[in-house]
Design goal:
The chain is mostly beta strands. It is built from no helices and 14 strands. A hairpin with a 2-residue loop joins strand 7 and strand 8. The chain is globular, with a radius of gyration of 16 Å.
């Protein structure tokens, strides 16, 4: 499939007129993806799904004291087709704040029936990371983890810096 000029962190959601790197619904513009490079794409290839924005909120141990995001961030979008859920998020920090504990993201509007898988498609300025993943759990929370050769371990505040960013795509069945 020819994807054209796609950024390194691109995820191809389907064949057709649009290729979505990290796509986020543009506020107030139904049916449009805002690409990470600022261009918009018509997501008509989504087989009836409609992209909708959501606001991801990064938490450390359930809190986000002093945590701040870069301009225009965080971004999130999802498509729900029947019971199939597909979500994306882009979180970029200007300060990780003072909260401590396990890193996870709240705000996704649906919870899957069983844990759903995901992939971190791009990240920067994360400490001690080899292969990060994101998992949509039945409580509706997106958990951030590091997958090693024999196990998965949770990400914590200590893995983040004041300039960390993380982009991930995940899915689940409701």
């Amino acid at each position: 499939q020819d994807t054209g000029d796609v950024p390194n962190h691109a995820v191809v959601l389907g064949k057709g007129p649009g290729v979505v790197g990290f796509g986020s619904a543009a506020p107030g513009v139904a049916g449009t993806f805002l690409m990470s490079n600022g261009t918009t794409v018509d997501p008509s290839f989504q087989s009836g799904g409609v992209s909708t924005a959501w606001t991801p909120a990064l938490k450390f141990g359930g809190n986000s004291v002093g945590l701040t995001y870069g301009a225009g961030l965080p971004l999130g979008s999802y498509v729900k087709i029947g019971s199939f859920l597909l979500g994306s998020m882009f979180i970029g920090l200007t300060s990780k704040g003072s909260s401590t504990g396990r890193a996870f993201v709240t705000g996704f509007p649906f919870a899957p029936a069983v844990p759903g898988g995901g992939a971190v498609v791009s990240y920067n300025a994360l400490a001690g990371i080899t292969s990060p993943t994101c998992l949509l759990w039945p409580d509706g929370i997106v958990y951030l983890e590091n997958t090693g050769p024999t196990n998965q371990v949770d990400l914590f505040d200590t893995n983040f810096t004041d300039v960390s960013f993380i982009i991930c795509t995940f899915m689940g069945i409701q």
